[in-house]
């Protein structure tokens, strides 16, 4: 059932037994499915010590090999390349907006801005451009390798992405930029499964040691898929995270097995529950250890906007506690961006125009001040600099004068080796495109959850 603002009703958005791969379950089966689910949770030992040390990689690869749609996309990528597919996605979004009579993102935002505030000195929107503030979040995508291959993944990670991984030189340079940027108070590590990258522990350990030695408050975030905690050679990962006081932001798109496994792969739900219980056992998400933050991330299972973040958090906490004894701190809701695998889904279902219309019709001007591109610098595994993680996946790097540029040379995409500190990037406006409507719809969306 739709409600005001284009958001689906809370129950329809979150109850796992309402959703299958096609996002629906026959109405007559819902009650029996719910009853079976509750009965199974009461009897199961969800801590699953038997899964510790077992890998999900082979299962993921088998699912990828048997997935007709994945194989078709792989063949297409081999034929036209990542850049070619990105151009196709952009053209599809632009066609949808043209049919709706919607201009480009920046013009759309500027036309709806309050005239008295649009060009104010403290406004992010000046001269019809988005101007960043001094960055306080350094986000590093340290590699695209992952033990999962989720069907909504905007970075298209999988066990096949072994080559796109951050080098020691780039990781060391990122730590230098952190040291040289006193306004940065958050180091945000993502991937792929960042924990499976060889630089992950190096970055965490040195960043924490340096912050303690210099009395600098630093939040370190691990964007975790949960199942990685059970992978071989990761038995000590939870202890490592705890010892270095790393906040865990974990993906869990629903609290029901069918929905999670539909989005993230067979067996992911039970492994995720086991991992959450392991984190709780270490103190994460519990009142006794408030410094060990455990946040969960929800993203919709289809082409609709997330429900209210606050209301959904209440339901998540109730269901996870009652069914599994799981505790956590906060729930973050993130809108599915119309790029990469989710764009492929929209194209296959013929719903790109419908989804873009949903985003545009639910534009919220109050979200503009909270856009993550204004205070975040995103670094790719190869050291290239971006305004946000979504721009990174679309190859929309920050363009400026590199350290090797001459007076006659054209501006080029900047890398971590072209700047002395993140403050150097304030002179460059944020690059935007039609996918940015995903961050300004409804309550807004960012890596930190809702923004308005």
Present the secondary structure layout.
Elements: H1 10-14, H2 30-43, H3 57-66, H4 68-100, H5 105-111, H6 115-118, E1 125-126, E2 129-130, E3 137-141, H7 168-179, E4 186-190, H8 200-213, E5 219-224, H9 237-243, E6 246-251, H10 257-264, H11 268-281, E7 294-298, H12 309-324, E8 330-333, H13 340-349, H14 352-361, E9 376-379, E10 385-386, H15 389-393, E11 399-400, E12 412-413
Parallel strand pairs: 3-4, 3-9, 4-5, 5-6, 6-7, 7-8
Antiparallel strand pairs: 1-2, 9-10, 11-12
Helix pairs in contact: 4-13, 4-14, 7-8
Task: Kindly describe this structure.
The chain is an alpha/beta fold. 37% of the residues lie in helices and 10% in strands. The protein is built from 15 helices and 12 strands. The chain has helices at 10-14, 30-43, 57-66, 68-100, 105-111, 115-118, 168-179, 200-213, 237-243, 257-264, 268-281, 309-324, 340-349, 352-361, 389-393; strands at 125-126, 129-130, 137-141, 186-190, 219-224, 246-251, 294-298, 330-333, 376-379, 385-386, 399-400, 412-413. Strands 8-7-6-5-4-3-9-10 form an 8-stranded mixed sheet. Strands 1-2 form a two-stranded antiparallel ribbon. Strands 11-12 form a two-stranded antiparallel sheet. Strand 1 (125-126) and strand 2 form a beta hairpin. Helix 4 (68-100) packs across helix 13 (340-349) and helix 7 (168-179) runs parallel beside helix 8 (200-213). The longest helix has 33 residues, at 68-100. The chain is globular, with a radius of gyration of 22 Å. The two termini are 23 Å apart. The model is unreliable at 1-34 (pLDDT under 50).
